[in-house]
Amino acid sequence: xxxxxxxxxxxxxxxxxxxxxxxxxxxxxxxxxxxxxxxxxxxxxxxxxxxxxxxxxxxxxxxxxxxxxxxxxxxxxxxxxxxxxxxxxxxxxxxxxxxxxxxxxxxxxxxxxxxxxxxxxxxxxxxxxx
Length: 130
Known about the structure:
Strand order of the largest sheet: 1-4-5
Strand content: 25-35%
Helix content: 25-40%
Shape: globular
Number of strands: 5
Largest sheet: 3 strands, antiparallel
Number of helices: 4
């Protein structure tokens, strides 16, 4: 069983932020692998290379501007979510060979051939079929 992020990484325990019009303008350090997953790809986890430090400008829920630096797992989570805003999912960051090896699993997910405990839309299933 996977430990919740907060238990494995105490620095993330009470981390909650609202990022409006966020922009990661600087990434620092040597990229390192970290095993990531995503609700969009149930059951799939892979090592993704990212830099350990980010600098981000954003507005909070009160439209107050911020310019902050994050590191460790918090930087990783922000980068993962920021990618979604940019239309990137974590499998897009995998090497081509790894994507080829995962082709069948990715196809099964697209077709809905996967068990999920939450509502999910599958791109290759017509509305109303699942």
